[in-house]
Amino acid sequence: MNKKNKGFSLLEVMITLVIIAVGMLGVAGMSLKASFLNIENAQKNEALYLANDIVNRMRANSDNASDYVGTTVGANPDPDGNASIVDDDLGSWKSEVESRLVAGTGCIYEEDGKVLVAVAWQSDAPLGDAISNIKKRYSASSAKSMVGKADACGNGKYNNGNKINQFRQAVVVNTYIG
């Protein structure tokens, strides 16, 4: 081996190690992001389940469906055990929303025979206000005023300093109760 080539193999190995290290950091970052999104999707699935749960309870008790409207997260069940079906439904729904979601909030609205159920929760990262994004999608539709009402659900609860609702994620179910 001549003097010009001494240490060249060591330099190649060091460059290769740096390239591999950068690649591994990229893989670790993608894995972390995938893990975070997996948690967010699990929260979204729970919220959809809870929204559909109260809608199904309202359909099962359709004679009293209007008694569910105007509820934010639900009412406490009657402590003496004489609660109505609506009180029982709302009490158990409140318990489920609060226990299954991070800082969960649920709201029920009604307009022209349509029922809107919004379920909001706190994200682990400032992803932006989900209800504002939903409002943009419905801006030209007949559901615009209903989605506007959903904006009150958890409004101001999920802040990031002066950025209002940066941590608020939500699902909205808009349906008829027969």
From TrEMBL:
Q: Does the keyword Membrane apply?
A: yes
Any transmembrane segments, and where? 7-32
**Protein name as catalogued:** Type IV pilus modification protein PilV
Which superkingdom? Bacteria
Q: Does the keyword Lipid biosynthesis apply?
A: no
Q: Do you know which PROSITE patterns this protein is assigned to?
A: PROKAR_NTER_METHYL
Kindly name one Pfam family recorded for this protein.
Answer: N_methyl
What are the record keywords, sorted? Membrane, Transmembrane, Transmembrane helix
